[in-house]
Amino acid sequence: MTQAPTQSGVRLSRRGVERLDLLLLTVEALDLNGGEAMLWTSHQLGLQAQFPNRVELWKRRCHSPLRRITRRDQLDSTDAESLIALVCAMADRLYPMLHQLLSSREPEQLTQQRWELLRERLGDLIEERMNLRRGAVLRLLDPASNAPTHHRLVSTLGLVAGPGGIDRLRAFLLDPTP
């Protein structure tokens, strides 16, 4: 497992919050019981105070401006660090699946089937939870342009798994480039 979050005072930009929420959605798309697994993992990390139940976890995730229902206030730095630790712990847990998706040694047909299943699940979650009037959300749903984004999300999860993942994810979320 990864470490519990440190109190470094991270303030995520709007883009950072969007990226974090998309990573959490990707985790849910990869794990059929993603919501429950996130809650269980948060308790394993000692984050019961931050996420005592699914509703509190959902409230923290609703700071993304791409959501249908969004919270206008800024994501608290403690909540941001807790979500970062949660994403890294979930990436550790899902690493075998991430490795299969990213591996060039797997049979091409099997890899394509896995990617198609991920695209389908992630698309369903985006349609269900995101504001479909936003251009960024429509681009995420566009089959012609979403493959690189999905690959980037899975690659990011693969990179933040393991030791030092929290620092790598924090750097990725704080990076201002699109």
UniProtKB/TrEMBL annotation:
InterPro entries: DUF3038 (IPR021399)
Origin superkingdom: Bacteria
UniProt-recorded name of the protein: DUF3038 domain-containing protein
Taxonomic path: Bacteria, Bacillati, Cyanobacteriota, Cyanophyceae, Synechococcales
